[in-house]
Amino acid sequence: MVDPIEFRNALGCFASGVTVVTSAGDERGPVGVTVSAFCSVSLDPPLVLVCLDNRTGCIACFTEPDGGFAVNLLADDQREVSNAFAGPQTFDMHGYGHSTGTTGAPLLDGVAAALSCRTHAVHDGGDHRIVVGRVEEVRVDRTKAPLVYFQSSYRGLSEQG
Ligand SMILES: Cc1cc2nc3c(=O)[nH]c(=O)nc-3n(C[C@H](O)[C@H](O)[C@H](O)COP(=O)(O)O)c2cc1C
User: Fold this and answer.
1) How confident is the model over 108-132, as pLDDT tens digits?
2) Which of 49, 56, 74, 128 to mutate to test the pocket of ligand 1 (most atoms within 8 A of CB)?
3) What separation in Å is there between the alpha carbon of 86 and the centre of ligand 1?
4) Which domains does the chain have, with CATH numbers?
C-alpha cells in the first residue's frame, strides 16, 4: 500500500511547467483551468496530453470528441494568472487579455507558448481524465522563461540556456 502523503511528496519532486487549459466554454462564456499535468505525446501526428481531475466543473468542455481547447504555457511572470485559474470557474477569463485561436479557445496574452488543440482521445486515469489533444495551431515566444512548479511552490529558472 502506497502512503498517500509520501506519494504526493514524491510527485512534488518532479519539476513541471504550469499551463492554463482553456475552452470557448458554453453559453456562460469561456473557461480556463490551471494544469501542471501536461506532456508531449507525439510529433507526427502532433499530440499532447493534459490530466484533468474528474471533479473539474467544466471538464465536459474538454472531453467532447473533436472539441476545441488550448494549452497556454505560462511565463515566469504569470503566477497570478496561474492562481486565478486554479479557483472556481468565473466564465470570464478573469479579465486577462487574450485572442481567439483556430478552435475558438482563448489564447492568453504574455504566455511562453500556446497550442490550439482538438480532443483526439480521452482515457481513464483513475480520479483524473487523460485528455489527448491533436495540435492544429502553435504560437511561441522564445524570449519568455517558463513558470516552474516544484514541491508545491512556483519557481523561476535560475539559468538561461
Ligand atoms: C500549480 C497548479 C497546478 C495544477 N495542476 C492541475 C492538474 O494538472 N490537473 C487538474 O485537474 N487540476 C490541477 N490544478 C487544480 C485546478 O486548477 C483547480 O482544481 C481547478 O481550477 C478548479 O476548477 P473547478 O472549480 O471548476 O473544479 C492545479 C492547480 C495549481 C495551482
Assistant:
1) 999 999 999 999 999 999 999 999 9
2) 56
3) 5
4) 18-145 (2.30.110.10)
Cβ–ligand 1 contact at 57 (below 6 Å): yes
Burial class (CB in 10 A: 0-12, 13-18, 19+), 55: exposed
Look at residues 87, 68, 83, 80 and name the one whose alpha carbon lies nearest to residue 134: 68
For ligand 1, atom 4, which residue shows the shortest CA distance? 35
The whole-number average pLDDT for the span 126-140 is: 98
Q: Give residue 161's pLDDT.
A: 57
pTM (2 decimals)? 0.96
Whether 72 and 107 have beta carbons less than 8 Å apart is answered as: yes
